Fold S-(hydroxymethyl)glutathione dehydrogenase.
Amino acid sequence: MSTEGKPITSLAAVAYEAGKPLTVEEIIVDPPKAHEVRIRIKKTAVCHTDAYTLSGADPEGAFPSILGHEGAGVVESVGEDVTSVKPGDHVVALYTAECGKCKFCKSGKTNLCGSVRATQGKGVMPDGTSRFKNKKGETLLHFMGCSTFSEYTVVADVSVVAIDPKAPLESACLLGCGVTTGYGAAVKSANVQKGDTVAIFGAGTVGLSVAQGAQARGASKIILVDINDAKKKYMHEFGATDFVNPTKDLQNGQTIVEKLIEMTDGGLDFTFDCTGNVKVMRDALEACHKGWGVSVVIGVAASGQEISTRPFQLVTGRVWKGSAFGGIKGRSEMGGLIKDYREGSLKVDEFITNRRAFKEINDAFEDLHAGDSLRTVLDYTN
Ligand SMILES: NC(=O)c1ccc[n+]([C@@H]2O[C@H](COP(=O)([O-])OP(=O)(O)OC[C@H]3O[C@@H](n4cnc5c(N)ncnc54)[C@H](O)[C@@H]3O)[C@@H](O)[C@H]2O)c1
Ligand SMILES: [Zn+2]
Ligand SMILES: [Zn+2]
């Protein structure tokens, strides 16, 4: 029996309150309106940004909501005027939309898109309403335009891309955020070149993806900096050449900035913050080579946090910049990443360290903070 045009009962994990575990329950998902797409999510993973919003540190975090933004599935139905995807298509949800028509999209200078930004930030669809409610009839908000922690979700048609159905959905879902964010930051936002030296603070999925992007470009030195020694085992797999744990590997009062400058004869060509810690962001900038070093902020800092450095650092040629979703335009560039993955030049499967049934989602949040785990992929079908 077709579900098209009807509300669907869906398994979901509801974030009712900051700092509390998610509640796994059945919710009601309304059909898609014009320019909207209802997706049956098959696989979703937990990114650090979900944990950050759930913790209450996100100024835009609103509750109750359906979190999740690394997800892939199959289109169940589409609303009026949707031409880019059709029922049955395999898709990845995109938290960075691409409309192709707004000032941002037309600029050719950024992957940010203004089309759904205002409503996405408020947790509603572009018409200002939500498609989710719980069984008591209470409205549940959307998150990052994706809400992949519901088996059925509704997204704007500019926030979804069809992919090659031969790509496994459990891998495709990681291209919805972590892998694409890090890889794109290296090859697009920073545009690392052959022979460059690179330091990456934070060896999670994002940081290790920066490493593989830098390796793809032929960087001569790729230094991972992480306070968790358990991450060291991944260095060679993703192309890093060195690993420094600032809590253990610094001697005689040396700072991490001094250590990195010493290791690279004056500083790095590129550094990346993949921690969200504003002190680390400062170290990353100051470890850059005088005259040309570029530091890219990827990590999401807690509400109210600010970055600082002496202006002289910039006057003497260091550049501070940021990157969202790796500078990648989701609808026009996802196909290329999927192709790279299928041809073996982009590692994705290697980031899947844990697999769980969707109902174990709260354990997946614990995995993110534990030992050597990178990504836990959740499966709705068991
Ligand atoms: N800009 C974007 O588009 C975007 C997209 C995805 C994620 N993010 C952000 O990127 C960051 C990384 O995400 P992730 O999913 O890889 O997270 P993760 O939790 O898997 O990895 C973070 C790593 O940083 C390390 N770390 C923490 N504090 C450190 C410190 N002081 N010095 C060195 N290392 C430290 C941790 O040990 C961990 O290995 C998060 O802040 C996340 O919110 C940004
Ligand atoms: Zn993310
Ligand atoms: Zn746009």
Notes: The two ends are 22 Å apart (CA to CA). The chain is about 25% helix and 25% strand. The longest strand covers residues 36-45.
